[in-house]
Structure formats: structure tokens, C-alpha cells
Amino acid sequence: MIPMQEQFVVDQQGKRISVLLNIDTYYRLLHELEELAELRAYDAAKASGEQPISFEDAVVEIERNRS
After folding, report:
1. How many angstroms separate the CA atoms of 57 and 52, rounded?
2. pTM of the full structure
3. Cα(52)–Cα(55) distance, rounded to whole angstroms?
4. What 8-state DSSP symbol labels residue 6?
5. Cβ-contact 9, 18 below 8 angstroms
6. In percent, how much of the chain has pLDDT > 90?
7. Considering only CA atoms, which of 5, 38, 3, 35 is closest in space to residue 21?
8. Cα Rg for the chain, rounded, in angstroms?
9. Cα–Cα dist 9/15, whole Å
């Protein structure tokens, strides 16, 4: 868990509408979200049942489809 020292921006009724984060916390959160997206993509690929291909073969296929 990422420790946070957040501050909230509230509207006239006192309802929280925004949050202010330390820039380091923001970047750590972005990093964690990127890692989570990678894990989800990995899980989806494993669950798809498709045959994996090598990185080199993937690059060749991508280049072939660009033309």
C-alpha cells in the first residue's frame, strides 16, 4: 500500500470534488497502475488459450501488417 498525504478540495456544500497529492505519490500511483495493467494483460493472454509467439516473430508480424 502506498502511504498518502492527500488533501481534498471541496465545493460550497463541503462535498469532496478533487484531491491533491504529493507529486512523488502521484508518480508512484501511476507506476502501480501501469503494473496492474500489465498483470491484467498477462492474465487475459493466459486465459485466451492462444498459442504464444516469440518476441521476434511478433515484431515480424507487426512490421508485415504495417505495409
Report:
1. 10
2. 0.62
3. 9
4. -
5. yes
6. 78
7. 5
8. 20
9. 8
3-state SS record for 10-36: ECCCCCEEEEECCHHHHHHHHHHHHHH
- Alpha-carbon distance of 19 to 9, in angstroms, equals 6
Distance CA 52, CA 46 (A): 9
Q: Which three cell numbers stand for residue 48?
A: 485466451
Cα angle 53-55-56, degrees, rounded to a multiple of 5: 100
C-alpha cell at 43: 492474465
- Res. 5: pLDDT tops 80: yes
